[in-house]
Design brief:
The complex is a heterodimer. By secondary structure, chain A is an alpha+beta fold. Chain A has 14 helices and 11 strands. By secondary structure, chain B is α/β, with parallel strands linked by helices. Chain B has a 6-stranded mixed sheet with strand order 6-7-8-3-9-10, sandwiched between helices. In chain B, strand 4 and strand 5 form a beta hairpin. The chains are: A alpha+beta, B alpha/beta. At the A-B interface, helix 1, helix 11, helix 12 and helix 14 of A face helix 1 and helix 2 of B.
Chain lengths: 380, 243
């Protein structure tokens, strides 16, 4: 502790340089944590998926629908307990700046399939009864200030026109990975306006035994192999992962960018630290003349590097953690449950420690090994 | 027994492809309480002698003993510890740390001791009082004159109560008045506080304040002057050098 004023005084020698270096570290770790959170959020969506649910989609492409007639045939497959379906609506609300997902669903079977969506019974019943009604996640309620009974108009893009819905229920997800920002309305409401175009986008089946999933999937795909709409059946986890992969190889991209940013900042920080050290050659020589050992000089410079790295890490990781909460980024339906995990914070802290070692060790070693006489001769 | 015993010291430097011999068998003693000025042209080995005594440099061969400790045989960490307790060093260009106040600069050697904060501040205040800068504790080096900076540097050199004070051209960058103040301070440290002092200087006036003046040329002690009673230089032919 008694050396703290010395460390602080040295850090304050070039205030602007120190502040900019800390900001560089903070920015690097903010980007690192944010980019990593995109991948962890995508991964977590598939991790919490139910093993009892399988998804049937068109084998040609996810965006091509399946015939309505498949519903009955799917329900007769052994081990299948129940069947529901959904459609991607893809509408725009207001100025469209805040994106959220809208699904046309078969209300009773869909909510029966997803007990993870908790909704008061009276609201659920009101939703079932009214064809133009909708239920929304509490995240959307927070974002747009909606309440039960409000009429909300959404502009259709895939299905053109102004679509007005009455909100009859607000759901709360059992786990944040399920998202609290979806907008669900009656499939029939969509179908009655576009009967020639609308068929289910995908089917969701509940099976009685997760171990039977491979057999069920094979049976279904074999059954429709030679039809006009062959299917691709997979677990909900695989579906969620596939949904994420629509972004391309996001994980690799994010990881590569994240590491490149951290590495670039590492070089900048290390350079700043070394520049700082070069300017202090004579002072290190004086400290050694006074009696500071090589080890103590080494330690003091490492502590300086640690203060810069850890302050930057605190600010960067703190901002990455708080920003989605403050801005409501995770509530936009874009990446449900977007939040910086403890694992990401731990990796960020580890990166900061590595940054301390990498940026501090060379100047510290140089200072520790500085030959006093030569250094003083340069000064004198 | 002399405070500083230099025995048959050889010292050479490599400069590009050439080897430069500074000392070839230097032998000399400095008694406790002595005040010695080392004079001579540039390159004569004056500063090298101070560096050897302070353990900042090692002889090529031979022995350097200070207060009974074999300096030339110590490891780097032993030297650092020994230096903090035994040596006070003053440079020509003051070499105060610009980011620290006068008080913090003087406190620097005490950070290496087990003294608590209150004792460190107390001893720092005493040292600054001795050099006449008790009212400048919170001043940074840039806020002090050259003479004041050098007095702070002397306060830093004496604060840990070292056995030996070494000064390398301490008046080299000072005007006449400031030089006189610094030299008067050194006289007091020697006479009132009985500190052993070795000073390297080109300044004849500075050398006049010493009890003994040694002239070095090309590593050879040419003459000894100002020998007074109790001057402290080895009496049994301790002063001598051969090449």
């Amino acid at each position: 502790m008694k050396f703290l004023p010395l460390v602080i005084a040295n850090l304050m020698r070039h205030k602007l340089r120190t502040i900019l270096t800390i900001c560089s570290v903070a920015l690097a770790l903010f980007l690192f944590a944010s980019l990593r959170t995109v991948t962890t959020t995508l991964a977590s969506g598939s991790e919490v998926s139910s093993a009892q649910r399988v998804i049937v989609q068109n084998s040609t492409a996810f965006v091509i629908p399946l015939p309505m007639s498949y519903a009955n045939r799917l329900s007769s497959v052994p081990h299948v307990q129940s069947v529901t379906w959904a459609n991607w609506f893809g509408g725009k609300y207001g100025d469209g700046k805040k994106f959220f997902a809208q699904f046309a669903v078969d209300p009773k079977t869909y909510l029966g399939m997803y007990p993870e969506y908790s909704i008061p019974e009276d609201q659920k019943q009101a939703f079932f009864k009214e064809r133009s009604s909708a239920i929304v996640g509490e995240g959307l309620v927070r974002a747009f200030g909606w309440k039960v009974g409000d009429n909300v108009t959404i502009q259709g893009t895939i299905f053109p026109g102004d679509w007005t819905f009455t909100i009859r229920g607000i759901y709360h997800p059992a786990m944040k990975e399920y998202g609290d920002d979806a907008f669900m309305f009656h499939y029939d409401y969509l179908y009655e306006k576009y009967p020639d175009r609308v068929t289910p986008g995908w089917y969701i089946l509940k099976i009685d035994d997760p171990a039977a999933a491979p057999v069920v999937m094979k049976t279904i795909d074999d059954q429709f192999r030679n039809s006009n709409a062959p299917t691709k059946t997979g677990t909900e986890k695989a579906f969620a992962a596939g949904f994420a992969s629509m972004w391309g190889n996001v994980k690799l991209l994010m990881s590569t960018i994240g590491m490149a940013v951290v590495f670039a900042i590492l070089l900048v920080t290390a350079n700043a630290m070394m520049m700082n050290q070069r300017e202090r050659t004579s002072e290190v020589a004086v400290m050694k003349t006074v009696g500071f050992s090589d080890r103590r000089v080494f330690g003091l410079i490492i502590i300086e590097a640690a203060v810069i790295s850890l302050t930057g890490a605190f600010l960067g990781l703190g901002a990455a953690t708080l920003l989605p909460i403050v801005t409501g980024f995770g509530e936009g339906g874009f990446l449900p449950g977007f939040h910086v995990t403890g694992g990401t914070l731990a990796v960020g802290a580890t990166v900061a420690l590595l940054l301390t070692v990498a940026s501090g060790i060379f100047p510290a070693w140089q200072a520790a090994k500085l030959p006093v006489v030569q250094a003083l001769r340069r000064v004198e | 027994m002399a405070l500083v015993e230099i025995r048959d010291v050889y010292k050479s430097f490599k400069r590009e492809a050439q080897t430069v011999d500074v000392y070839a068998g230097l032998t000399i003693d400095f008694e406790e309480g002595s005040y010695t000025a080392l004079m001579g042209p540039s390159g004569s080995g004056k500063s090298t002698l101070l560096n050897l005594v302070a353990g900042l440099d090692k002889p090529t061969s031979g022995s350097v003993r200070v207060a009974g400790a074999e300096v030339s045989k110590m490891t780097a960490s032993q030297l650092a510890d020994w230096r903090s307790r035994t040596i006070g060093f003053v440079f020509q260009s003051y070499n105060l740390l610009p980011v620290l106040t006068a008080q913090q600069n003087v406190e620097l050697p005490l950070l290496l001791t087990n003294l608590n904060k209150r004792d460190r501040i107390e001893r720092t205040a005493i040292a600054l009082g001795v050099v006449g800068l008790a009212d400048r504790v919170d001043h940074y080096p840039r806020q002090l004159s050259g003479g004041q900076e050098q007095r702070v540097a002397i306060a830093r050199a004496i604060v840990a109560d070292p056995t030996l004070i070494l000064l390398d051209e301490p008046t080299g960058q000072l005007d006449a008045k400031s030089s006189e103040e610094v030299l008067e301070l050194l006289r007091r440290l020697n006479e009132e506080f009985h500190k052993t002092i070795m000073i390297v200087t080109h300044d004849a006036k500075a050398a006049e304040h010493a009890k003994t003046v040694l002239h070095l040329e090309k590593g050879v002690l040419l003459e000894r002057e100002g020998v007074k009673a109790g001057n402290g230089i080895g009496a049994s032919g301790g002063v001598g050098a051969t090449r």
